[in-house]
Specification:
Length: 219
């Protein structure tokens, strides 16, 4: 029993070290960016916990940089990582050209190019990214996000967000994931509430759910 307990503790320590290291690796590309800002979210459900770190900044008035690192730990202490770095160039209005390199554990680095559009109207925000890989195997990706953040008082508000990510290949649908968030916003910095992640994988759309809660800190 002691050996099993020690092994579990060691796996937990390794997981925590991996999560901290992933955060620093995501921050390195934008260390020199101006006006850097971002958020870090922890979501825990009945199947796994997910850390989602986002950081963005401006290298010049026309060129921006964005990094995202997602770390997943299930209750068997298995750890997964997904990271990306985007370079963006303003085209017109909310439209940008995008060069992206993403990294998935076990698959390595995958470069892609595409375009993104972002628009805010009062308390409603909308974002969409369409991209295609630059190397074999060829794949396409679509990310769409809609957020609604009405304030009830000067310090307290509500937050609702839906994000959908879909990956396509020559074989058809590979994977889609919907991230659902609903809760409260405090001082426009801290968000707390209910969360649900839904994943459809493969041509047969095998569906899995991870329902729980989330805490998000903006910086």
């Amino acid at each position: 029993m002691k050996e099993n307990s020690n092994e579990i503790k060691m796996n937990i320590k390794k997981s925590l070290v991996s999560m901290v290291a992933a955060c620093w690796l995501a921050l390195v590309p934008i260390a020199s960016a101006k006006a850097a800002n971002g958020s870090i979210e922890a979501m825990c459900g009945e199947k796994q916990c997910v850390q989602d770190l986002k950081v963005s900044g401006a290298l010049t008035p026309e060129i921006g940089v964005f990094a995202r690192e997602i770390t997943i730990i299930d209750y068997a202490k298995q750890v997964g990582h997904f990271g990306l770095v985007d370079l963006t160039h303003k085209v017109a209005g909310g439209l940008d050209g995008v060069l992206e390199v993403q990294y998935i554990l076990g698959l390595g680095a995958m470069p892609s190019a595409g375009a993104q559009y972002f628009q805010v109207v009062d308390e409603l925000s909308f974002y969409v990214l369409v991209k295609s890989s630059l190397t074999e195997p060829i794949y396409g990706g679509i990310l769409a996000s809609v957020g609604y953040t009405p304030f009830l008082t000067q310090e307290l508000g509500l937050t609702f967000n839906v994000e959908n990510v879909s990956n396509l290949s020559s074989k058809g649908h590979e994977l889609s994931e919907q991230r659902l968030r609903a809760g409260v916003t405090i001082s426009n910095k801290l968000q707390v509430g209910a969360a649900g992640d839904i994943v459809e994988q493969g041509e047969e759309d095998q569906t899995t759910y991870n329902l729980g809660g989330f805490v998000c800190l903006k910086f």
